[in-house]
Design goal:
Elements lengths: L12 E3 L8 H7 L9 H18 L5 E4 L3 H12 L5 E5 L3 H12 L3 E5 L6 H4 L3 H10 L5 E7 L1 E2 L4 E2 L2 H10 L5 E5 L18 E5 L11 E5 L1 H7 L11 H8 L10 H17 L1 H22 L2 E2 L11 E5 L6 H12 L1 E3 L10 E5 L6 H17 L8 H11 L8
Parallel strand pairs: 1-13, 3-4, 3-5, 5-8, 8-9
Antiparallel strand pairs: 2-10, 6-7, 9-10, 11-12, 12-14
Helix pairs in contact: 1-10, 2-10, 6-7, 11-13, 11-14, 12-13, 13-14
Bound molecules: pyridoxal-5'-phosphate.
Length: 403
């Protein structure tokens, strides 16, 4: 089946919550010849993407672009701002929050991992009141940063970042606020400046519709000031040198030129549609997807309607079924990839991605593949999710949003 000459008819449906399908426009832009990264043309490209990406983070502050996956940008956020042995408060929202915590340990930090009992945090997101209570107890201000994942890609649950900011302020605590919006950015509303975030981490392969390979740190003035005295070792990740060279559109090392061509194109696409329209499109598709899951008689992983993810939907499979076996049936019959359950929820749920270039018809095809696959797997469905999603979309028409 997996021989290189196997080519099923039609296109593969890559419906995992990132990497998301890369639009043809972006693939074409990335196919331009690679240019001299110290030459004049490159400087213009650098300045263009560095200015453009700020509009997506909704910030006036510097955004550092790394030739690395999101994990690299996680590390960059920690090593630029913290010192060995520093305590960081991290909230257990799911698998990615857990991985970030493990990284903090590996770097010699002391993460305090708080959360709801069992896997409740994996269904409800970060709880600002718990963060506030912990910060109020920390009278000596040992906690140097609060770290939260904005859109938990392992569960399809978001966290209310503005509420976390209010919690830090209400506790009168000076900790930095660091937010992973690797899978939220450019799909779910995100406001680095307005929400008072000190470091926002993101990546290319989700809402920005690019292949994996670049990642970001949006950095507040407070984080920049702290980075001057922070003592964790850093070389490649160091902000100061990069930001200095970025002033003229260059990097201290070889940046990934072709991905930056792709980024310029993605920014044009997003700005052409309008950021608000991009967010509304994702919200509407996510609501239609949840309507389908409910009509099937299945449960959505996110248990709090206030924090449903617009990016992906986690679907809990009935007792006695293995979510990965269902995914395999869907892959083998319909050439569609869905996200596996990760960590504590492996086998219990699968994830449907509806991010990036997603539209009504890609969602409907995706849901059809899921419905047929669930039926083949022997799951007794309560009703047609496909019909419910169509009903939702036709009763909430938006047309094509042209600015
Ligand atoms: N954080 C979140 C929320 C993610 O979704 C991912 C990847 O899916 C990561 C971190 C890790 O990023 P990467 O796999 O690009 O290194």
């Amino acid at each position: 089946m997996l021989t290189l000459d196997f080519h099923p008819a039609g296109r593969h449906f890559l419906q995992i919550p990132g990497p998301s399908p890369v639009p043809d426009r972006i693939l074409r832009a990335m196919s331009y010849p690679t240019i001299d990264h110290r030459g004049p043309e490159f400087g213009a490209l650098g300045l263009r993407v560095l200015a453009g990406i700020k509009t997506i983070f909704q910030t006036e502050q510097p955004v550092v672009i790394y030739p690395a996956s999101g994990t690299g940008a996680w590390e960059a956020a920690l090593v630029n701002t913290l010192s060995p042995g520093d305590t960081v408060l991290m909230f257990e929202t799911g698998h990615f929050a857990t991985l970030w915590k493990k990284m903090a340990e590996a770097l010699g930090l002391k993460p305090e991992f708080i959360g709801l009992p069992g896997t409740e945090g994996w269904r409800r997101g970060a709880q600002a009141d718990m963060i506030e209570a912990r910060l109020r107890e920390d009278r000596e201000h040992k906690i140097k940063a609060v770290c939260v994942v904005h859109n938990e890609t392992s569960t399809g649950v978001t966290s209310n970042i503005a509420a976390v900011r209010r919690a830090i302020d209400a506790a009168g605590h000076p900790a930095l606020l660091m937010v992973d919006s690797i899978s939220g950015l450019a799909s779910a509303d995100y406001r680095h400046d307005e929400w008072g975030v000190d470091v926002t981490i993101s990546g290319s392969q989700k809402g920005l519709m690019l292949p994996p390979g670049i990642s970001f740190n949006a950095v507040s003035q407070k984080a920049l000031a702290v980075s001057k005295t922070a003592k964790l070792p850093r070389a490649f990740w160091g902000w100061a040198e990069i930001i200095e060279m970025n002033a003229t559109g260059y990097w201290p090392y070889t940046p990934n030129t072709n991905l930056l061509y792709g980024l310029a194109e993605a920014l044009d696409m997003i700005q052409g549609e309008g950021l608000e329209n991009v967010f509304a499109r994702h919200q509407r598709l996510a609501a239609a997807c949840r309507a389908a899951v409910t009509a099937w008689g299945l449960e959505v992983q996110c248990a709090d309607p206030e924090v449903y993810s617009p990016v992906l939907t986690g679907v809990i499979v009935p007792e006695g079924f293995d979510a990965d076996a269902i995914r395999k049936i869907i892959y083998e019959n319909y050439d569609m990839s869905l996200g596996t359950g990760l960590g504590k929820v492996k086998g219990r749920m699968f994830r449907i991605g509806h991010l990036g270039e997603a539209n009504d018809l890609t969602l409907m095809a995706t849901l059809s593949g899921c419905e047929m696959g669930l039926t083949l797997a022997g799951v007794k469905l309560a009703g047609s999710g496909v019909a419910a999603a169509m009903q939702y979309l036709t009763s909430h028409p938006r047309g094509l949003q042209r600015k």
